[in-house]
Target: Histidine phosphatase family protein
Amino acid sequence: MKLMILRHAPALTGGRLAGRRDVDADCSDRDAFARMATRLGEIGEVLSSPARRCLQTAVALGLGDPPTRAALWEQDHGAWEGMALDRLPDLGRMSPADLARHRPDGGESFDDMAARVRPEIEALRGDCLIVAHAGTVRAALAMVVGPAALSFAVAPLSLTVLRRAGPDWSVEAVNVTAP
Model:
């Protein structure tokens, strides 16, 4: 089974942390969308986070209005939601495992989010494209590499590909953008 996860187009956040805030995507780069659609090729099932930025990305790719799954939402950053990126607290040096367990006030940790995302991914039975968030991509990567998944860059409108053989997952590609 092949799982492709596409991060949504750049979020229009005004320099603020979006997380669970429902913001628009910048879908103006038609050439980038055309190149990514070509890179995606034939697609089986398509699912999406219910976030507006993900649904707008799916439409811009010509995927129509895919079914949504609430479990695919981005991490809830609690008190940090909507905060200017340059005002986010400095947590200092933390191991990947400690960072994955860290929970902002009123939010969820990466581990919490990964526990929400994983059953949705594990339930898939055939090739699938998911349009979602950087956190969703990292949650899928965590199934293979654990909390080290937090170290992966996930650019807007980038593709990550995983494969499953039986119960085992492998990473085929991460953060692939259309040439």
